[in-house]
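As noted in the main text, all predictions were made from sequence alone. Below is one such record, for LacI family transcriptional regulator.
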Amino acid sequence: MANLTIKDIARISGCSVSTISRVINDRPDVRPETKEHVLKVMREAGFVPNTNARQLKIQQSRSLVFVVKGTRNIFFSDFLVQLQRAATLYGYNGIVSYLDENANEIDAAEKILREIKPKGIIFLGGSVANFQRGFDSINVPSVLTTLVTDELNFPNLSMVGVDDRAAAYTAVDYLIRQGHRKIAVLGGPVTSYPSVMRRKGAQEAMEDAGILFNDKLYGLSNYDFESAYHAMNSLLARRADFTALFAMSDVIAFGAIRALVSAGFRVPEDVSVIGFDGITMSRYCVPVMTTIVQPSEQIALQSIELLVRQIEHGSPAQTVTLQPELQQGESVRAI
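Prediction:
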């Protein structure tokens, strides 16, 4: 039997996909008789996971490439695990390619297509301008995930994510409803589409509440701890007057909180902080982060499903916008 997947082995053996996965990974939480049965089925079917020969075959016939823009973005790290899990369920192997935040993801994808020849590509983050200039050269089914825009329209490019503008509006509106009027914002540059949309959403929430958006309270930061730490220190050095902070990612929020605490401020007693993404760490940090939670598992599964439909059935590209949720933690107080 050719091109068998763990789903095939699950069907033949009468076991679940998760059980097959545990047997392959030699997990201890499988009954010995079940493990022996699965291994027997695998031997008889000629299924050999994780060998060099199989890997080479996968690269030619069942591979997907995940192009990750931002090597230090923890949200993408968590998200990749969910993407890999979803790809495996559909019988595909995910190959990860990491890029710097300022790299051109389309140039990287063109090189990957020449070297690996994957069945499809999922872009984690990206520049709308880069896609507008160069995506015509990408001839395989693709999904731009965690970013949704009406500025891109390609027959082989689906998009899955949240409405960044509306989500940021929700975050800042929440701060305003807690009584805050002096709100600082930390986020990315104009080359980052999500940052631009989140800034617009924040600005609209302030304007609807009769608050003037103050450019002096906007700090530029990449999506990593160190950059956020320095961005907050720059705001503090300018003696910026604010009672709350909207950070465009949880990672930015963590870096900013470290700078605030180092400068003698308490969160939320002196400065309230709301983040964005809802990464796992946000629920276990001190204080527990108030944040906008992206439905990352749903985004990952939807991205893989759309890509597989394009690959296997020639389905048209789609744009799917999912709803985030406000996670109320301990980092925001009413004043």
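Residues 165-294 form a domain with the Rossmann fold fold (CATH 3.40.50.2300). The chain has three domains: 6-49, 54-161+295-322, 165-294. These features were considered when defining construct boundaries for the mutagenesis experiments described in Section 2.9.
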